């Protein structure tokens, strides 16, 4: 617990029961909105910086009381153990039934985090070793061998200097002729001289034009599909049957269920990201700014976060239903927004973008 004394002119708040005491401010949530420094038990973050500006304007004294989860903090608020809750608290219809909220001071959304396995060297060359591509190459080599055999059978008696009697050398020369014919390279070092050889060459020219275009299209399709089959989950259409981690009490639970993902509940965001790292889950769904902040501070983990955003939601301070503080807090929040102080606070932690 951290006691915050704002100034010599700071005032206590008279509660509904007539008792004049400092406000007890519950604190819960993830970085960068709430950062709990366990070494000295200090607290900081976007939400707390905004609240401290509000309290300074009203000359309120207050004490922070840290909770490990938002659910525990909301429960304490409902039981009257604290006066309000500060943190990245999503304003949802379910919560509004039991609590009152300030106006939103930050607009957030849900997004997806998955392993960025395409960033590794192996991921980049892996498609070239796919079964489909190997089958296509095998068919191509078999076809070249067949055409090379036909060239050798047609030309070995008419052009023994080009197609010697030795089968290995003769078929190999025939395959070389098939390749230069298909690629239209035309070095001129070899050419069929017999009628049968020219018929084989003519048929191969027509067939190779069709085959070459089909093979190129097939290889491109294989490489594309191989890229799509990576473990990156970038859209909700990929959710069915996949294990998706999120925090208990998060609005992301309903979101995952809606898109038929298998929800894996955790108590903290680092726990969810650790499961993603060791491949216990396929993706993590949580509030976008927290995921982006985690990614920026764990670059070695190769986390992929797409541009897609879902479930737009506002963060606000939560109060009990009978609280008389909301109007004062809303007024100061409007003034802070008009003075762009809230924007400057968020930029300190998240950057201007």
Automatic annotation (TrEMBL):
SMART domains: PBPb, PBPe
Entry-linked Pfam families: Lig_chan, SBP_bac_3
Membrane-spanning intervals of the chain: 133-154, 174-191, 203-228
InterPro entries: Ionotropic_Glu_rcpt, Iontro_rcpt_C, Solute-binding_3/MltF_N
Keyword Transmembrane helix in annotation: yes
Gene Ontology terms, MF aspect: ligand-gated monoatomic ion channel activity
Ranges of residues in domain Ionotropic glutamate receptor C-terminal: 22-352
Keywords: Glycoprotein, Ion channel, Ion transport, Membrane, Receptor, Transmembrane, Transmembrane helix, Transport
Location(s), subcellular: Membrane
Protein name, UniProt field: Transporter substrate-binding domain-containing protein
């Amino acid at each position: 617990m951290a006691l915050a004394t704002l100034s010599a002119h700071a005032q206590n708040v008279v509660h509904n029961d007539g008792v004049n005491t400092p406000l007890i401010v519950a604190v819960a949530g993830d970085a960068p909105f709430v950062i709990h420094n366990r070494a000295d038990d200090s607290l900081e973050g976007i939400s707390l910086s905004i609240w401290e500006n509000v309290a300074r304007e009203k000359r309120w004294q207050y004490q922070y009381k840290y909770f490990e989860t938002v659910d525990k903090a909301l429960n304490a608020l409902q039981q009257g153990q604290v006066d309000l809750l500060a943190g990245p608290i999503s304003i949802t219809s379910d919560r509004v039934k039991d609590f009152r909220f300030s106006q939103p001071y930050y607009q957030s959304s849900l997004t997806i985090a998955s392993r960025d396995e395409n960033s590794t060297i192996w991921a980049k060359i892996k498609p070239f070793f796919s079964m489909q591509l190997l089958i296509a190459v095998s068919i191509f080599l078999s076809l070249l061998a067949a055409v090379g055999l036909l060239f050798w059978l047609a030309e070995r008696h008419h052009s023994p200097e080009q197609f010697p009697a030795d089968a290995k050398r003769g078929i190999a020369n025939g395959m070389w002729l098939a390749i230069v014919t298909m690629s239209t390279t035309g070095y001129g070092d070899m050419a069929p001289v017999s009628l049968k050889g020219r018929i084989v060459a003519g048929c191969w020219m027509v067939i190779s034009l069709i085959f070459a275009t089909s093979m190129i299209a097939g290889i491109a399709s294989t490489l594309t599909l191989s890229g799509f089959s990576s473990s990156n989950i970038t859209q909700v259409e990929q959710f069915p049957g996949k294990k998706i981690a999120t925090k208990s009490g998060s609005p992301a639970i309903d979101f995952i269920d809606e898109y038929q993902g298998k929800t894996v509940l955790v108590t903290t965001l680092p726990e969810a990201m650790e499961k993603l790292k060791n491949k216990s889950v396929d993706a993590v769904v949580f509030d976008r700014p927290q995921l982006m902040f985690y990614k920026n501070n764990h670059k070695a983990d190769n986390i992929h976060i797409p541009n897609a955003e879902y479930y737009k939601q506002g963060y606000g301070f939560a109060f009990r239903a009978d609280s008389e503080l909301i109007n004062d807090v809303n007024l100061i929040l409007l003034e802070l927004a008009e003075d762009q102080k809230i924007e400057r606070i968020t930029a300190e932690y998240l950057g201007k973008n």
